[in-house]
């Protein structure tokens, strides 16, 4: 149910300048994370927050990105570009990735997998301050994330919840988070498009995460709708897994059809081509890589 | 009205073919099929109207400029304004529910549907329930209900059309990934590998004194 690196572009299809702009925003979020939320928060930098930052910037009517050269914070030998005029959006994206990561780690702590639990115990104390600060900066975001977690727990506790019930909380969370951008001076029509886009993007991410974790959750005994519905165990045959993956892929395609329809109605300015690459090529490529290529590795 | 060239995303110096191609691409993108039962259908139809008008404006402008052009007018004229008129006029016991769904009042529609006792739930009930769920984004449930409606009344074209739309979406025709479609890149990988394999095979042969690919300079 967590955004963990599923929303990324398909690199070979990007222009060089588009890739550099993407990279620059990614590096800028890293820097903003370090500046505002402490150096440990840099560990949770993700592609998903880059997508969110790009979308925030693309929705601003008169925004033109400016870039400047600099050095990577993690590796001083590496040069990288930074985006110099996007601080508020970058900070917002940084905060979202902190809030989601902390929720994910708190969730891991309750899961049965040994390695995620260790990692959660180790990382959480370092992120405590960052979490408090991010929640204070963006209380509406914290509220959306917490509501999602609560509803998710309820949906998972229900013995006969449907796949739709399980995907609903994440979908509604992203819907609420994107709807925040349609709040002030824009017309209500625009708000509906944002909500719809967020809803199906969230739904897609939930399905992807669940489908990707089928084997792991079957082995650890954690909740996963696909595992429960198809009764996957750790001894399940590869044919069974293929069946689950094919079903999940179809469900994701159905979601993608609605996502693309809504996304096409968004009024995007800067970074429009990168965002289009992510939605139209990056996400389908993720489905392909994680559901159909994994077995052959 | 905004600049028709900007709407189509082409420069005013674009050729007629480029304008037409840009128009076709956009028309496909905002086609009513992509927004069937979507709460955003009204926005898409506005967008479509804007695109149609822009295209017509450009075509007319250019016609006037050059009395005779290759343009044959808007090929999508009429057929693409299908947003409002697609509802079938089948005899319906749920006309109030249908009008609520059309008006976007999903909660009211669902309230009436849920009030129908289980023994009175016919194929149309399942279809409309599925439509409400689809609108709201509960896609898997929606697909189950509409599939059930098709089973109960296999002859109904409206239910069948909705189901085949969903099946197309499942298969990835409207976005997503379709594993049965081989894309060009992986074909290219195989082609590249083929050359690589030949070179390897040649190198191996040469180790043992043979020669698979004769070297031109050695002759």
From TrEMBL, chain B:
Offer one Pfam family short name for this entry: DnaJ
Q: Where do the TPR repeats start and stop?
A: 123-156
Q: What is this protein called?
A: DnaJ domain-containing protein
Question: Which species does this protein come from?
Answer: Caproicibacterium lactatifermentans
Q: Keywords of this protein's UniProt record, alphabetized?
A: DNA replication, TPR repeat
Signal peptide as annotated in the record = none
Which Gene Ontology BP annotations are present?
A: DNA replication
J domain: from which residue to which, for each copy?
3-63
């Amino acid at each position: 149910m967590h955004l963990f690196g599923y929303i990324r572009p398909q690199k070979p299809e990007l222009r060089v300048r588009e890739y550099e702009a993407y990279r620059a925003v990614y590096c800028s979020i890293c820097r903003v994370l370090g500046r505002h939320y402490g150096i440990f928060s840099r560990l949770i930098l993700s592609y998903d927050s880059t997508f969110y930052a790009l979308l925030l910037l693309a929705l601003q009517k008169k925004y033109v990105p400016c870039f400047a050269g600099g050095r990577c914070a993690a590796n001083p030998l590496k040069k990288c570009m930074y985006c110099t005029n996007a601080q508020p959006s970058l900070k917002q994206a940084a905060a979202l990735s902190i809030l989601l990561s902390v929720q994910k780690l708190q969730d891991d702590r309750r899961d049965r997998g040994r390695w995620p639990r260790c990692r959660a115990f180790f990382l959480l104390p370092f992120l405590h301050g960052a979490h408090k600060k991010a929640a204070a900066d963006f209380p509406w975001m914290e509220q959306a994330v917490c509501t999602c977690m609560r509803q998710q727990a309820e949906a998972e506790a229900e013995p006969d919840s449907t796949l739709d019930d399980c995907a609903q909380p994440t979908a509604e969370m992203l819907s609420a988070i994107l709807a925040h951008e349609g709040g002030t001076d824009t017309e209500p029509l625009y708000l509906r498009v944002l909500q719809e886009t967020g809803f199906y993007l969230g739904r897609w991410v939930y399905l992807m995460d669940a489908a990707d974790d089928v084997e792991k959750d079957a082995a650890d005994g954690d909740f996963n709708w696909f595992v429960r519905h198809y009764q996957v165990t750790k001894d399940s045959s590869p044919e069974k897994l293929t069946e689950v993956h094919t079903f999940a892929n179809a469900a994701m395609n159905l979601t993608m059809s609605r996502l693309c329809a809504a996304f096409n109605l968004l009024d995007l300015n800067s970074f429009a081509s990168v965002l289009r690459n992510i939605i139209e090529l990056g996400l389908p490529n993720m489905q392909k890589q994680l559901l159909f290529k994994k077995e052959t590795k | 009205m905004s600049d028709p060239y900007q709407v189509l995303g082409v420069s005013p110096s674009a050729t007629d073919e480029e304008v037409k191609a840009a128009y076709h691409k956009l028309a496909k993108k905002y086609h009513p099929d992509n927004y069937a039962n979507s709460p955003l259908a009204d926005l898409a139809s506005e967008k479509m109207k804007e695109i149609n008008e822009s295209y017509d404006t450009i075509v007319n402008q250019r016609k006037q400029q050059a009395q005779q052009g290759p343009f044959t007018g808007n090929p999508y004229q009429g057929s693409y304004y299908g947003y409002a008129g697609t509802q079938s006029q089948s005899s319906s016991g749920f006309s109030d529910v249908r009008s609520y769904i059309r008006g976007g009042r999903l909660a009211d529609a669902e309230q009436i549907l849920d009030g129908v006792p289980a023994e009175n739930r016919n194929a149309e009930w399942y279809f409309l329930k599925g439509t409400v769920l689809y609108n709201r984004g509960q896609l898997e449930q929606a697909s189950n209900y509409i599939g059930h409606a098709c089973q109960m009344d296999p002859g109904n074209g409206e239910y069948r059309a909705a189901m085949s739309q969903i099946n197309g979406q499942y298969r990835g025709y409207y976005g997503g990934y379709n594993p049965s479609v081989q894309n060009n890149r992986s074909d290219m990988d195989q082609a590249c590998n083929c050359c690589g394999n030949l070179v390897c095979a040649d190198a191996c042969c040469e180790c043992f004194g043979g020669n698979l690919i004769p070297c031109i300079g050695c002759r």
